[in-house]
Amino acid sequence: MLYWDYAAAAPPFEEVVQTMEQLMRLHYANPSSLHRAGLEAEGLIRRSREVCAVALAVLPQEIRFTSGATESNNLAIKGAALQYEGRGRHMVTTQVEHPSVYESCLQLQRRGWEISFVAPGSSGRVDPARLAAEIRKDTVLVSVMHVNNETGSIQPLEELGRQIKAANHLTLFHVDGVQGYGKLPVELNSWKADLYSLSAHKLRGPRGAGLLYVRDGVKLSPLLSGGSQEQGERAGTENVPAIVAAAKAVRMSGEQRSALTARLLPLRDRLLRFLEQLPELLLNSSMEGAPHIVHFSYPGMKGEVLARKLEELGMIVSTRSACSSRLAEPSRVLLAMGRDHAAATGGIRISLGDSHTEADIEALEQAVKKAVTSLKITEGGRI
Ligand code: PMP
């Protein structure tokens, strides 16, 4: 079996597994306790915060540890909404965001907030001028992802940041960085980002761990009330093994970014060139996208059927993103990019990681050819 679902969850670094195991045995004390064992656990969190701060070129006190990017995105959007309601009740986001951003915005909308959902172009990128035109005096926050989790399209964050701040310097800029970190350069300062979310398990860290960068001076109203952990913005006893292991994954995947990208780009390009030649196939990714995501549709053929066929042939792929793959509706992201219902229903996402080789790509290409041919013959995959 070959695993092609790194964008859903990447296999952890060996060091991450070892760290989790050792810390669960050794550092079970509560980091808020004042005895020596508690202070040791607190010290581990402090060092992890420093590690993440170095990796992102920010200050340690600007890092909040969370249970993952879903929580980070919820905290960024709803925490800012609750904190800055006095400035207005308007937000701007895009039609292609992850459900943790999109649904948070819809929840606010149901409570009377106005949300502008900006449409992307056919490549999935949003036009900065078009987005900036939505910004008003009462716009509290703009949320735009770095890399799309379904198609791999990359947003022009530097230009977005410039135009957002030019339109309203008080508007906060949140970036969901989950699919970009470890694959593309991260420049929080040049993006003028105030908030930035990461998830550890996409970076070969543990699941259930993530972080939110909160620029100094920005305040968030906590979504979890309780103790004063994470500067009072995220109450609850810290998951010390996951935090330390997540910081390790952030450091290691940051250090390995250039080498990984250099390995993945030729593999991704080869796969795209192969898919391009298949008749009827519609590519939803391009060479301008992130180096690890390739998405395509066979209009009229159900993604799940194709994915199941590929699994029979030894290839583990996903139909879109893990969070939406159980939904029967067409992909909101593909519809927003102007794809029709047939193309947006299903589709296949292939996501690459460090373990893949040229021989693996060759095997995948053969499997795709075989799967498509056999489904066409049986017509079993037709909608
Ligand atoms: N944002 C994006 C772009 C993602 O791909 C994901 C993971 N599917 C998330 C947010 C949510 O991350 P987590 O699984 O850590 O909650």
Give the DSSP E fraction (strand runs of 2 or more residues). 5-15%
What's the N-to-C terminus distance? 27 Å
Strand order of the largest sheet: 2-8-7-6-5-3-4
- Topology, number of strands: 12
Secondary-structure blueprint of this entry?
Elements: E1 2-3, H1 14-26, H2 36-56, E2 63-66, H3 69-84, E3 90-94, H4 99-110, E4 114-118, H5 128-132, E5 139-145, H6 157-167, E6 172-176, H7 188-191, E7 195-199, E8 210-214, H8 240-255, H9 257-277, E9 282-283, E10 293-297, H10 303-312, E11 315-316, H11 332-336, H12 341-344, E12 348-351, H13 358-378
Parallel strand pairs: 1-11, 3-4, 3-5, 5-6, 6-7
Antiparallel strand pairs: 2-8, 7-8, 9-10, 10-12
4'-deoxy-4'-aminopyridoxal-5'-phosphate is lined by residues 68-70, 73, 98, 100, 145, 149, 176, 178-179, 199, 210, 321-323.
